[in-house]
Structures are given as C-alpha cells and as structure tokens.
Amino acid sequence: MYRFKPELRIPGPVPVPNEVSLQMAKPMINHRGALFKEHYPKVLARLGPLFGTTNQIHMITGSGTAGMEVAVSNLVSPNTPVLCLVGGFFGNRWAELCAAYGAELHILDFPWDAGIDPEKVREFLKHHPEIELIFVVYNESSTAVLNDVEAISKAREGHSALLVVDAVSALGGTPCQMDAWGLDVVVSASQKCLMTPPGTAFVTFSPRAKEYSQKCRASRYYLDLRRYDQYMEKSETPFTPNINNVFALEEALNMIEAEGLDNVYARHRLMRDMMRSGIKAIGLELLVADEDASPTVTGVRYPNADGFRARLRERYGVEFAGGQGIHANNIFRVGHMGYATPLDVLTALAVLEMDLKKFGQATKAAELVMEA
Ligand SMILES: Cc1ncc(COP(=O)(O)O)c(C=O)c1O
C-alpha cells in the first residue's frame, strides 16, 4: 500500500543520511596517499569521546564480528580460561568465537529477557581466580537489553581478568566510558548508531590489554592487531580499507558533533521511552523490564511474529526485525538508533496500531486514525 517508501526499522543496518551516503560516491583515492593519511587518524580520534577513551582506535574492514574476532584472536591462546556472559545471541557469539580459538570456555548463562546480574559475575569470579578474560555484550541487540557494563566491570573487584565488551549496537547511542569504567577492549561497527554503511568495525585495546596480547599464541594474520599498530604510525591500515566509509564516517561524526553527544544520547532515551509507552498503550507485551531496556532497540513479544512482520512490510513498507535464537518467530524488534528521530517512532507505532486495528487488537487511538 505505502511500500514505495521503505522504512527500515531494524537494529542495524540503519538508514544512512543523504550527506553520509554522498560520501560513498566520491572518486576513489589512493589509500597510501596524502588525502587518506590526512583524514584517517583524525576520524579515528573523533571516535574517542564516543568510546570514552584516549586509547588508539583501529578500523578494520569487515563487519562487527570481524571486530569481535580481532579481540578474540589477539587475546585468546589455546586453553586460555575465559568467561563468557551469555544472555542472548551475541553473547553466544563471543562463546562461539572463544571456542573456535581453543579457549577453556566457562559460560555464565542469563535469561534472554533480562540484564546480566553483576552479583552472579562477582560470585563466579570469587571461585575462579584462573579466569583471564571476560566477554560481555553491552547492548544485546537480540533481546533489546542494555547491560550494566560499568557494574560488571566493578564486579571484578581485585580479580585481574580483562573485560572485553561488544558495543556494536551501543556505541554512539548510549554513553560508553571505556577508561573511566575500566573496560579493556571495546568493539563496535559502522552500521548501527554511527549511521554509516556496513563494512567497518572499530576496536580499541587498553594498555593492559595491549600488553596481555603480546603473549597471545593464536594464529592470526588479517586481524593481527600488531600490524594495525605498525601501520598506524604511517596513518595507514595494513590492508586496503573501504576508503569511502572513512569519509562517510567523517560526515556522520559531523552530524553527531553538531547535535552534541549528550543530546544524541537523550534522543535515544526519548525514543526508547516513547516506543515502550506506545507498545504498552497498544496492548502489546514488551520483552524486557524498564530497568533493562535498551535505548537503541525494543523487543516485543508476538506469536508468529515473522508472519506479522511480513504483512507490515507488504502493506506499509515498514521493516521490523525478527527474533534470534530462542526468540525466533516469538518476538519482533524495532530499531531506533542512529539516523532515527522520535517522529520515526511515531510512524512505527502508527503502523502497528493501524494494522492491529484492521486485523485484531483494536485500540481507541487506532480507531480515530482509521476513521480520519
Ligand atoms: C550486539 C551485536 N554484536 C555483534 C553484531 C555482529 O555484527 P555484524 O553483523 O556486523 O558482524 C551485531 C549485529 O547485529 C550486534 O547487534
């Protein structure tokens, strides 16, 4: 019906602003030439306030998972005792990656509809002084849960384990204070709150993580952080990067800086609150409680959600995401990150309301819309 103007409301990739897209059409340049070398380190440095760090940030040409693999392949040697905190699909990805690199794998499982309990982490670590690395997801996109990584970091107390954080769907949408919170490795990606096309991952190591990685015995080549450090001295990447994504990110950072980081975070919190109030008002059930709710994505319980999503896509051109893992077909997820405004939330809610009015679960507001 209205699908000639598609509306992407998934937790990444997100719509890319025109100004940013235009950068992708720029003529190709030499990645070992002066123009690239001038822009590359500056763009990376501008990510510092988003990560909350003064550590060197590296860009990897690859998706977010490539960034996760940089962390694992530069830290996990065969039989390294690691702890993965798993409360969703991407927490599980950490565990799979650690297993692939031969870690001695310990998993603390959490329900897939609530945050990770730092007390359980504290308790586990008390009995496992041998753990060297802890892996966690900041914003678990599969469950729409924002984990309290600051509290998880504190739960280590005197324990020496390094904390490795997947901030793929958090960075730029909610505060991240790598240095102040004592996070050791943080990973992110271009296609979420950074509203840039997919294909770029970002990784940063604390000095302690860098030192620890020197003794890592894992086999690695493309993702070997030492190469990225060496080439950074020349303001280059070791391998050909997706050059125009650097310029796209530069433009996205212009937009983020013009809005102001605090305002960006406030906008995400507002979208979260609007979405949650609207979902409740429509009479649908939210997947997680308010205290665990993500500012960048909202999960909604819905039987046969995939059929419902297909109808919304077909009738209105609005694309919501499906559930993953145990939530497949039982939930749908609405992305509200990056290039998204409260008006986009209203559109998403209106579509849900109109459709439910037509096919069931009518509400008063929807009746007014349908009569208009
Ligand atoms: C929290 C989180 N971690 C990791 C990933 C993996 O990123 P990619 O699909 O870019 O490899 C995603 C992607 O949705 C994510 O949301």
Name some characteristics of this structure:
372 residues; alpha/beta; Aspartate Aminotransferase, domain 1; Aspartate Aminotransferase, domain 2; 2 domains; seven-stranded mixed sheet; five-stranded mixed sheet; 42% helix; binds pyridoxal-5'-phosphate
SSE map:
Elements: E1 7-9, H1 18-23, H2 34-46, H3 48-51, E2 57-61, H4 64-73, E3 81-86, H5 89-100, E4 104-109, H6 118-127, E5 133-137, E6 139-140, E7 145-146, H7 149-154, E8 162-166, H8 178-181, E9 185-189, E10 200-205, H9 207-213, H10 225-232, H11 243-259, H12 261-282, E11 285-286, E12 297-301, H13 305-316, E13 318-322, E14 331-335, H14 342-359, H15 364-371
Parallel strand pairs: 1-13, 3-4, 3-5, 5-8, 8-9
Antiparallel strand pairs: 2-10, 6-7, 9-10, 11-12, 12-14, 13-14
The protein binds pyridoxal-5'-phosphate.
Number of helices: 15
SSE topology string: EHHHEHEHEHEEEHEHEEHHHHEEHEEHH
CATH fold topology of the largest domain: Aspartate Aminotransferase, domain 2
Oligomeric assembly:
single chain
**What would the average pLDDT be, to the nearest integer?**
96
The N- to C-terminal Cα distance equals 17 Å
Class derived from helix and strand content: alpha/beta
Unreliable spans: 362-368
The largest pleated sheet is described as: 7 strands, mixed
Task: Trace the largest sheet across and list its strands.
Answer: 2-10-9-8-5-3-4
The CATH class of the largest domain, by name, is Alpha Beta
Beta-strand percentage range: 15-25%
